[in-house]
Backbone:
Protein backbone atom coordinates (compact mmCIF):
# COMPACT_ATOMS: atom_id res chain seq x y z
CA UNK A 1 0.00 0.00 0.00
CA UNK A 2 1.16 3.44 -0.86
CA UNK A 3 -0.62 5.07 2.09
CA UNK A 4 1.06 5.17 5.44
CA UNK A 5 -1.09 3.35 7.83
CA UNK A 6 -4.34 4.70 6.34
CA UNK A 7 -3.67 8.28 7.44
CA UNK A 8 -2.94 9.78 4.07
CA UNK A 9 -0.07 12.10 3.22
CA UNK A 10 -1.47 15.22 4.93
CA UNK A 11 -1.19 16.33 8.51
CA UNK A 12 -3.88 18.42 10.14
CA UNK A 13 -3.46 21.56 12.08
CA UNK A 14 -6.24 21.76 14.61
CA UNK A 15 -5.25 24.65 16.82
CA UNK A 16 -6.36 28.22 16.18
CA UNK A 17 -3.89 30.92 15.35
CA UNK A 18 -2.96 33.14 18.29
CA UNK A 19 -2.09 36.13 16.08
CA UNK A 20 -4.45 38.95 15.13
CA UNK A 21 -4.52 39.50 11.37
CA UNK A 22 -3.12 42.97 10.71
CA UNK A 23 -2.96 42.98 6.96
CA UNK A 24 -6.16 45.00 6.51
CA UNK A 25 -5.72 47.44 9.43
CA UNK A 26 -3.67 49.87 7.34
CA UNK A 27 -6.36 49.86 4.64
CA UNK A 28 -9.09 50.55 7.18
CA UNK A 29 -7.12 53.36 8.80
CA UNK A 30 -6.45 54.90 5.39
CA UNK A 31 -10.14 54.74 4.44
CA UNK A 32 -11.15 56.35 7.74
CA UNK A 33 -8.60 59.10 7.20
CA UNK A 34 -9.96 59.81 3.72
CA UNK A 35 -13.55 59.77 5.03
CA UNK A 36 -12.82 62.36 7.74
CA UNK A 37 -10.83 64.56 5.37
CA UNK A 38 -13.68 64.61 2.85
CA UNK A 39 -16.52 65.17 5.31
CA UNK A 40 -14.87 67.78 7.55
CA UNK A 41 -15.48 71.41 6.73
CA UNK A 42 -13.51 74.26 8.20
CA UNK A 43 -15.30 77.54 8.58
CA UNK A 44 -12.94 80.33 7.73
CA UNK A 45 -13.78 83.94 7.48
CA UNK A 46 -11.66 86.79 6.36
CA UNK A 47 -10.55 89.01 9.20
CA UNK A 48 -11.27 92.68 8.74
CA UNK A 49 -8.79 95.34 9.75
CA UNK A 50 -10.49 97.24 12.55
CA UNK A 51 -9.27 99.22 15.52
CA UNK A 52 -10.81 97.30 18.40
CA UNK A 53 -12.63 99.30 21.09
CA UNK A 54 -11.13 99.09 24.57
CA UNK A 55 -12.92 97.59 27.56
CA UNK A 56 -12.25 97.68 31.29
CA UNK A 57 -13.63 94.18 31.80
CA UNK A 58 -14.76 91.38 29.58
CA UNK A 59 -16.24 87.92 29.72
CA UNK A 60 -15.20 85.15 27.38
CA UNK A 61 -18.02 83.74 25.27
CA UNK A 62 -18.09 80.06 26.15
CA UNK A 63 -19.82 78.78 23.02
CA UNK A 64 -18.77 76.47 20.21
CA UNK A 65 -17.41 78.20 17.12
CA UNK A 66 -20.27 76.95 14.96
CA UNK A 67 -22.72 78.76 17.25
CA UNK A 68 -21.11 82.20 16.82
CA UNK A 69 -22.00 84.57 14.00
CA UNK A 70 -19.56 87.43 13.51
CA UNK A 71 -20.81 90.76 12.19
CA UNK A 72 -17.98 93.08 11.18
CA UNK A 73 -18.57 96.83 11.02
CA UNK A 74 -15.71 98.75 9.44
CA UNK A 75 -14.78 102.41 9.79
CA UNK A 76 -16.03 103.02 6.22
CA UNK A 77 -19.50 101.85 7.28
CA UNK A 78 -19.45 98.43 5.60
CA UNK A 79 -21.20 95.54 7.32
CA UNK A 80 -19.86 92.04 6.69
CA UNK A 81 -21.76 88.87 7.63
CA UNK A 82 -20.25 85.54 6.56
CA UNK A 83 -17.84 87.38 4.26
CA UNK A 84 -20.72 89.06 2.44
CA UNK A 85 -21.08 92.83 2.27
CA UNK A 86 -24.62 93.48 3.55
CA UNK A 87 -26.50 96.81 3.44
CA UNK A 88 -27.77 98.09 6.81
CA UNK A 89 -31.43 97.60 5.89
CA UNK A 90 -30.90 93.90 4.98
CA UNK A 91 -29.14 92.75 8.17
CA UNK A 92 -32.37 91.43 9.72
CA UNK A 93 -33.27 89.57 6.51
CA UNK A 94 -29.87 87.88 6.47
CA UNK A 95 -29.71 87.01 10.19
CA UNK A 96 -33.32 85.84 10.62
CA UNK A 97 -33.00 82.50 8.72
CA UNK A 98 -29.60 81.76 10.26
CA UNK A 99 -30.99 82.39 13.75
CA UNK A 100 -34.16 80.36 13.03
CA UNK A 101 -31.96 77.40 12.05
CA UNK A 102 -29.81 77.62 15.21
CA UNK A 103 -31.45 79.04 18.35
CA UNK A 104 -28.19 78.73 20.33
CA UNK A 105 -26.55 81.27 18.04
CA UNK A 106 -24.52 84.04 19.67
CA UNK A 107 -24.02 87.10 17.50
CA UNK A 108 -20.76 88.94 18.04
CA UNK A 109 -20.64 92.47 16.70
CA UNK A 110 -17.07 93.45 15.88
CA UNK A 111 -17.13 97.18 15.23
CA UNK A 112 -14.26 99.58 14.71
CA UNK A 113 -13.86 101.94 17.65
CA UNK A 114 -14.28 104.97 15.38
CA UNK A 115 -17.69 103.86 14.08
CA UNK A 116 -20.45 106.27 15.19
CA UNK A 117 -22.81 104.92 17.82
CA UNK A 118 -25.78 105.50 15.50
CA UNK A 119 -24.47 102.74 13.17
CA UNK A 120 -24.03 100.30 16.05
CA UNK A 121 -27.52 101.21 17.26
CA UNK A 122 -28.93 100.54 13.77
CA UNK A 123 -27.32 97.10 13.79
CA UNK A 124 -28.75 96.26 17.22
CA UNK A 125 -32.24 97.31 16.06
CA UNK A 126 -31.87 95.13 12.97
CA UNK A 127 -30.82 92.20 15.19
CA UNK A 128 -33.86 92.81 17.40
CA UNK A 129 -36.07 92.71 14.29
CA UNK A 130 -34.43 89.39 13.35
CA UNK A 131 -35.33 87.96 16.77
CA UNK A 132 -31.73 87.56 17.90
CA UNK A 133 -31.49 87.30 21.67
CA UNK A 134 -27.80 86.79 22.46
CA UNK A 135 -25.71 89.67 21.13
CA UNK A 136 -22.20 90.47 22.37
CA UNK A 137 -19.66 93.08 21.37
CA UNK A 138 -16.03 92.27 20.60
CA UNK A 139 -13.39 94.38 22.34
CA UNK A 140 -9.62 94.62 22.45
CA UNK A 141 -9.48 92.88 25.84
CA UNK A 142 -11.80 90.14 24.58
CA UNK A 143 -9.57 89.70 21.56
CA UNK A 144 -6.57 89.19 23.85
CA UNK A 145 -8.50 86.68 25.98
CA UNK A 146 -9.62 84.66 22.93
CA UNK A 147 -6.14 84.63 21.35
CA UNK A 148 -4.92 81.05 20.89
CA UNK A 149 -2.12 79.99 23.20
CA UNK A 150 1.15 78.69 21.83
Residues:
Amino acid sequence: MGLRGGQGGFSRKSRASSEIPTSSLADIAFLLLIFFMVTTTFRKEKKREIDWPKAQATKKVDTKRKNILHIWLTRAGNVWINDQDVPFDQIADMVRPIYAENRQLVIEVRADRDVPYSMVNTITKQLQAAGAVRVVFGTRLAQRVNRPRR
